[in-house]
Design goal:
The chain is an alpha/beta fold. About 40% of the residues lie in helices and about 20% in strands. The structure holds pyridoxal-5'-phosphate and zinc ion (ZN).
Length: about 600
């Protein structure tokens, strides 16, 4: 039996060979990554070349290229066989004639990880393990827990706090025991390794067996391109496992004669987590560990890439390159891809397109090259990130005139105005006249703002300036959006308010309102300043027979802005008539934003009840 093995596990650093019963993660001597090294002659003897060339792509077509010994143990969810889209619209826009996207979001759990997890969980069963564990930035957690569930194995997962909501929801649904840590992915890896050793859990992760399963992306791309390799393959790098696996896949297909060239490997990282790019820029194999990686592209928020050396070698061997992209470029690329090709991906995947845009600008691509970007994960995994750069949609009363109002006022033209560098341009540092404001809105957004909205917008500008904030282009965009959204004249209007707070006493708020040409003043305490203010507001309402309750409250720091601006979204309910509305407020000051949101809610409910 022993000498029949088709493969060995070898340390990429010290070249020591390990038995898979001992370790399939890292070298127990030097800590280096392991690689599965095949006896390709033996594989060739077994291989049915005709079948590979003619059978349709499916998850189990490539078993000959995997280190699986007991075929009865295979755990599959029909992963792989993902589409390769030819992107004509986007290609035209970038001046490229042959641009393709391999869409890995089409896998069962929404990311390429499933290809590797199939092999990994199968190996866990082969090795007789009773449970599995893994560290993850989210997608591995979702994938491993899905396959573990299918295999009937308990699954333990450790992720960094703040992991995107879609990935957490998946992982918990598949039944894994999930722990979030106040730390980085590297911390999660360390804890998980200890956990696996203590309890003899099978350690899943960016290790040798997973990499083998992920090679099938290369096999499929080659077949989908009619048995050719792309000229360039663009791919995000986290640990470097996937990119180096794809490279290995292409080199194998070349060895077996299925293709006759290899792609240049273009690795992409986020500028906040770029150890591989830094090593590439120094033309070395030795990357430096980054302790505090930070990027919106959470799946590649990795400062210590386990397979960094493997991917650096692939980049050098293929005459490729590594480059990084800023988060803003990533989110804009994510939007662009969805808009032009209707492919909705998560930010980490979108880094590939942001990188291609840069390469085009740098004239590093030839228009006739065959370029494939691997879009590694689906957009619904992390819907909150991209919402930061998308317009907030208005909530309106269900009448045609309201719909018309938003279209007539070119609301969407303003909302989708470009959010780029010129956004930081300062437009006003003192209160503009109505004439000046009108002119500026016309110049910046090509929109004629109506007089009622103008008054509203000017009020908001005044309140921003009062708080010591200059009005940048992005501020003006948001202020105009806001005033159009708010629309009608206010019936209930805040004249002024104040809150006193101290450490020991409950805060007390005082508010002055105008309603039907009469002024009211009330005060109230509350558990917090916002609560006190709203209670004081409600006292005035109660005097006039209105009972409006705050039923939901969300705070968002608006990242369209360099300096913090707070967006408040709240649900306000008319208790008597049992109707609710969503209201919003925006200001550099959280109290102002909150009370303005409540003011809007009260006015909306008032108008509904008349
Ligand atoms: C895991 C992951 C990556 C990074 O892959 P590595 O193998 O860690 O380099 C990129 N994008 C998505 C969506 C991922 O889930
Ligand atoms: Zn070693």
């Amino acid at each position: 039996m022993e000498n029949k093995k088709l493969y060995k596990l070898i340390c990429v650093d010290c070249k020591k060979e390990w038995k898979e019963e001992e370790t399939s993660s890292n070298c127990m001597d030097c800590g280096g990554a392991l690689d599965v090294v095949y006896d390709y002659d033996k594989i060739t003897e077994k291989l049915n070349m005709h079948l590979i060339k003619t059978a349709p792509i499916s998850s189990l077509k490539y078993l000959n290229f995997y280190p699986i010994e007991d075929m009865s143990k295979i755990v599959s969810l029909n992963e792989g066989n993902t589409p390769l889209y030819e992107c004509k619209t986007l290609g035209k826009m970038l001046g490229l004639n042959h641009l393709y996207i391999k869409y890995e979001g089409a896998n069962p759990t929404g990311a390429f990880k499933d290809r590797g997890t199939m092999v990994e969980i199968t190996k866990a069963l082969e090795l007789g393990k009773k449970a599995v564990c893994c560290a993850s930035t989210g997608n591995m957690a979702a994938s491993v827990s899905a396959f573990a569930s299918k295999a009937g194995l308990p699954c333990y997962v450790i992720v960094p706090e703040g992991t995107p909501i879609g990935k957490l929801a998946q992982t918990l649904s598949y039944g894994a025991k999930l722990i979030q840590i106040r730390g980085t992915y590297a911390d999660a890896v360390r804890l998980t390794i200890n956990l696996s050793q203590k309890h003899d859990f099978y350690l899943c992760g960016d290790y040798a067996f997973r990499a083998e399963g992920q090679k099938s992306q290369a096999y499929e791309i080659a077949e989908q391109l009619n048995w050719t390799a792309p000229d360039k393959l663009i791919i995000p790098i986290g640990c470097g496992t996937n990119s180096s696996a794809i490279w290995k896949g292409f080199t194998e297909y070349k060895k077996f004669g299925f293709i006759d060239s290899l792609p240049q490997m273009i690795g992409v990282q986020a500028s906040g987590a770029n150890p591989v790019v830094c090593a590439y820029e120094k033309q070395t194999m030795n990357y430096e560990i980054q302790d505090k990686p930070a990027t919106v592209a959470s799946a590649i928020c990795v400062g210590e890439p386990l397979d960094g050396k493997k991917i650096l070698k692939a980049i050098y061997d293929s005459n490729g390159m590594a480059l990084d992209v800023k988060d803003e470029e990533t989110l804009n690329a994510q939007k662009l891809l969805a808009k032009t090709e209707s492919i909705f991906v998560e930010p980490s995947a979108a880094t590939g397109l942001a990188a291609l845009q840069k390469l085009v600008e740098m004239k590093k691509v030839n228009k006739d090259e065959k370029i494939v970007i691997v879009m590694t994960g689906a957009g619904l995994k992390d819907p909150t990130s991209v919402l930061k750069v998308l317009p907030t949609s208005p909530v309106i009363n269900p009448v045609d005139s309201e719909v018309d109002r938003f279209l007539d006022k070119k609301f969407y033209q303003i909302c989708s105005a470009n959010t780029d560098a010129e956004d930081k341009k300062i437009l006003f540092d003192k209160i503009p006249t109505e004439e000046q404001l009108k002119k500026t809105v016309k110049i910046e957004f090509d929109v004629d703002i109506m007089n009622s909205d103008l008054v509203n917008a000017r009020d908001q500008i005044t309140s921003f300036l009062d708080k010591g904030k200059e009005i940048k282009r992005s501020d003006l965009q948001m202020i105009v959006e806001n005033s159009i959204r708010k629309g009608k004249e206010k019936t209930i209007k805040i004249i002024d308010f104040g809150v006193t707070a101290s450490k020991k006493e409950k805060p007390v708020a005082n508010i002055k309102l105008e309603y039907e040409n009469k002024e009211y003043e009330e005060s109230s305490d509350g558990v917090g300043p916002v609560d006190a203010l709203i209670k004081a507001f409600q006292k005035v309402l109660a005097k006039n027979n209105m009972n409006y309750a705050l039923t939901d409250y969300q705070v968002k720091i608006n990242t369209k802005h360099a300096d913090a601006v707070v967006d408040i979204k709240m649900a306000v309910k008319d208790e008597k008539n049992n109707v609710s509305v969503i209201a919003m407020g925006t200001s550099p000051d959280i109290l102002v934003a909150s009370i303005e949101a409540f003011e809007e809610g009260a006015n909306l409910l008032y108008n509904k009840s008349c």
